[in-house]
Amino acid sequence: MTFEELDLDPKLLSAIEQQHFHKPTPIQQQAIPEMLLSKDVLAGAATGTGKTAAFVLPALQFLLDDPRPSSHVRVLILAPTRELAIQILKVVKQLGTFCHFESNVVTGGFAADKQLAALQTQLDILVATPGRLLNIMSQDYIDLSNVELLIIDEADRMLDMGQGPDVLALIEAIPGDFQAACFSATLAGSGLVKFAQDVLDHPTIIQVDAANQQSQQVQQLVYLANDKAHKQALLQAILQDQSCQSALVFCNKKERAIELNDWLQDQAISSTVLHGDFIQAKRMEKTQKSTQGKVKVMVATDVAARGLDMLNITHVINYDIPFRGDTYIHRVGRTGRAQQVGIAINLVERHDIRNLQRIEYHLQQPIPLAKIAGLEPNYSLKDYLSRPKKTKTKAKTKTKLKKAKAKKSAQIKSKGSASK
C-alpha cells in the first residue's frame, strides 16, 4: 500500500514526501482508514512503528475536510509525558507544513504565562498532558466545548501514571459528540479495557503487534559481563566500534547514570546525561546536542524511554537491565525508528540474569548471546543456570524460627512493662 491509496489530501502527501516516508507502516495502513471514516479506534502497536503519524495524518485530514474557522480547539491530543507531547507537536507541524493550521502544546516544565497567552489565540490542534490541561481548564483559561476529535496516546502509560481520572475529567468538559481514538503499546489488562469503554464508542480494535513484541528492525544481543570493570570494558569497545554512530545508554537509577557519564568522559568519550531532575529547557538542550551529533552518547534513566525521538540513534545499550519486559521494549524502541535499523545491546552480569529471564519470558523468545574477542566472559549462561541452587537446611530454618519467636516474645513483654 502507498500513502496515495489512503486517500489523503495532496498537501499531506507533499509533507509525507518531504519527511521521506516511503510507504505506510502496518499501524498506519490499518488506523488511518478507520479514523477517516469517523470511527472510534482502539489501536495497539509496538514502539517505533509509526503510531504518531497514524493519528496525526487523519487529524489533519479531518481539519482539511471541514476547514471552518474556530476560536476554540477542535482536535485535542493527550500524552502522558511532556517529552512525548513535545514530540507529537513536532510531528503535527512537520506533517501539517502545507496546511497552515494553528497548533500548540500545554505541559508542565514551561512558563505558565506563555502557555496561557498561546491559548488566547486561534488554535486548531492542542497537544497536552492531562494534569496541566486540567489545571488550566479549572481556572477557565480554556474551553473544550468545540473539541470534535480526541486522541489519547500511550494510554497504557497514562494508566500506569495514575492519569486516568484526569483524562475522564477532561472528557466531561466536552459536551457534544466527538470522535475518539486511543493508541497504546499494549491492549492487555482489565484497566485499559475499562478505560477504553469509558472513552470510546463501539471502537474498531486494531492490534498490529502483540504486546510483547518490539520493532522487527532492531537486532538484539546479550553480552555477559564478569563484573563492573568487565562491563565497562565491553561498553567502551561497543561505543568505539565504527558501527556505533550515536548511542543511548540506559541506567536504572539517576545516581548510576551520573556515575557512568562521568566515567565515559574520563575515557574521552563524548557523552551527556539525562534524568528526571533536569528542567524541560535543559532536557531539550541535551537532546538537541545529541540529535545534531555534538554528543555521541546520551546516558539516561527511563525518563527518556518514552517520547524521546532521535532518529539517528544506532545503538541502545542497557547498561542496567530493566526490571520489566514492557520497559525493555520501550527502551529498545528508541532505535530502529522511521524504517531505519538499529542495535539493542544488553550488558548482563550474573545478578542481572533474573531480569534477563523475565524479559525473555515477556518477549516469548531468547535474546542471542554474543562475544567480543579479547573480552569473553569467564562463565556461560548455561553453566550459570544449571548450577545447583543453595538450599536452606531444616536446622537453620528451625534456628531462625526460634530466634524470631524469642524476639517477638521479648517485644510483647517490653510493651507490657511500659504500659504498667
Q: Short summary of the structure?
A:
Helix content is 43%, strand content 14%. The protein is built from 16 helices and 13 strands.
How would you sum up this structure, described in words?
The protein is of the alpha/beta class. It folds into two domains: 4-207, Rossmann fold (3-Layer(aba) Sandwich); 218-386, 3-Layer(aba) Sandwich (Rossmann fold). Helix content is 43%, strand content 14%. The strands form two sheets. A seven-stranded parallel beta sheet has the order 3-4-2-5-6-1-7, with helices on both faces. The chain has a six-stranded parallel beta sheet with strand order 8-13-12-9-11-10, sandwiched between helices. α12 (280-291) links the parallel β10 (271-274) and β11. α2 packs parallel to α3 (51-65) and α6 (130-138) crosses α8 (164-172). The radius of gyration is 25 Å and the shape is globular.
CATH architecture descriptor name of the largest domain = 3-Layer(aba) Sandwich
CATH domain class of the largest domain: Alpha Beta
The helix tally amounts to 16
Q: How many domains make up the 3D coordinates?
A: 2
User: If strands are numbered along the chain, what order do they take across the biggest sheet?
Assistant: 3-4-2-5-6-1-7
The amount of helix comes to 40-55%
How many angstroms separate the termini? 84 Å
Computed over alpha carbons, the radius of gyration is 25 Å
The helix-strand sequence is HHEHEHEHEHEHHEHEEHEHEHEEHEHHH
How much of the sequence lies in strands comes to 5-15%
Oligomer category: single chain
- What is the makeup of the main sheet? 7 strands, parallel
Instruction: Sum up the overall morphology in one term.
Output: globular
- Give start-end ranges of low-pLDDT stretches: none
Q: Give the integer mean of the pLDDT values.
A: 85
Q: In the CATH scheme, what's the topology name of the largest domain?
A: Rossmann fold
Question: Could you give me the name of the CATH homologous superfamily of the largest domain?
Answer: P-loop containing nucleotide triphosphate hydrolases
Q: What is the count of β-strands?
A: 13
Helix/strand structural class: alpha/beta
